[in-house]
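Hello,

Our lab assistant flagged a job as stuck in the queue for most of the afternoon. It eventually completed. Since we weren't sure the result was trustworthy after the delay, we are filing this so someone can double-check. Below is the sequence as submitted and the structure that was eventually returned. Let us know if re-running is recommended.
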Amino acid sequence: MFSEQLISSFGLKKTPFYYYDTGLLHKTLFAIKEVAVLFNYNIHYAVKANANERILQIISSYGLGADCVSGNEIDQVIKNGFNPKQIVFAGVGKTDEEITFAINSNIACFNCESIQELEVINDIAGSLSRKVNVALRINPNLDANTHHNITTGLNTNKFGIPYNDFLLIIEDFKKYENLNIEGLHFHIGSQITDYRVFNKLCKRVNEFNNFLLGKSVNIRHINLGGGLGIDYDEPENQIPDFQAYFEIFNKNLEVRTGQVIHFEPGRSIVGQSGILVTKVLYVKNNGDKKTIILDAGLTELLRPALYQSNHKIVNLTSSKELDVYDIAGPICETTDYFGRSVQLPETSRGDLLAIYSTGAYGEVMALHYNMRPPAEKYYSEELIL
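-- returned structure --
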């Protein structure tokens, strides 16, 4: 995947660093937008996946909206070209200050997650003499068949409005006089690769949408969240099958006239466009184990320690016979590993390794633990190709 010239340019940079293939990002954005237009779906990029300014500027240039989960994310996307009228504010713990900022920024909609949150937004909107749009984030109690730390749609999760509270809101929605309750929002998890889960989601959405027939609440927007996964094992499969993904909803979702469908992909847009380049500090023998110690750690890529996730790792500078290694970082934590029993060409001190699929939840989750400095960022159009 990498030319000798590009690898040589990597060798001139201080490691570790994030490298972004902006050409691939453009191709992915073109692909998702091309398919979304066919089905008349609205796309809001989930900023939590990657809030890098250059990345946001590229995404906003395609006219996508933004799904934000903090006031700072709202501020960041507006500064980088997103239209406030295409911003939705999600998140289970919005502060009063963030709510005020979002209202004053004229965003499109709040995705609300509890009765108390509705009351707070209603009060703040009233104090500002404003009426704001909200969507009710429903907890559909659906298992996304993914890692338990990134499942969001079960009753045991903190996210979303439980069914009984949803009924209370609908029965007494007129008391929220400063809110336009005009949408339903669902998000059941992240890194979903079993498409049958989305069939189940459509069924649950239809149940809620049909329940509201005849009610006074006019649901104009249905937001299906994000969650579409990427191929971490074979990152050469660079662009997800957006056609197959959207066709599931087009086939199974019962949409009434005038209703608009929204999605909030993050990982599937940016995940494969980033890699983490790191240098081998040491190779040590632990009995029958060989362990590579890298200069990148969980401070640069937290996912393996947090989710026990897998990322493809390649040695960019060795073509020797294969050997088996555990691959660890330098951080003073036992969980600071990127992989166990990984086959790599014989690896030596100074070799450059690439950790793939770090465009999502890599840089944005970086830590300064052990007083680590932030890693630099480079972009494909800046380096020798």
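-- support follow-up --
The delay was a queue issue, not a problem with the job. The result is valid. The longest helix spans residues 22-39. Confidence is low (pLDDT under 50) at residues 143-156.
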